[in-house]
TrEMBL record:
It comes from the Eukaryota. The keyword Repeat does not apply. This is Ras-related protein RABC1. One of its GO terms (molecular function) is GTP binding. PROSITE patterns: RAB. Keywords: GTP-binding, Nucleotide-binding.
């Protein structure tokens, strides 16, 4: 998962992997990277998803590219502004 700080990457990951939700006031920015595993079954075949939650702060940008090198997919979080 990639995207700017504060877009909800960690919240989406926690909800998807653990079916849990952390209120905003209890959340903290990801430092470096977080990693979770989720097993899913599609058409009677089991898959293991290894999902990396990368930090969105500018100071970690040089590190994040090394985490998604070789990835088979990317989930991108983005702020939506309402005008």
């Amino acid at each position: 998962m990639i995207g700017d700080s504060g877009v909800g990457k960690s919240s989406i990951l926690l909800r998807f992997t653990d079916d849990d939700f952390l209120p905003v006031e209890e959340s903290a920015p990801t430092i470096g990277v977080d990693f979770k595993v989720k097993f899913v079954e599609i058409e009677e075949k089991k898959y293991k998803l290894a999902i990396w939650d990368t930090a969105g702060q500018e100071r970690f940008r040089t590190l994040t590219s090394s985490y998604y090198r070789g990835a088979q997919g990317i989930i991108m979080g983005k702020h939506q502004l309402f005008a």
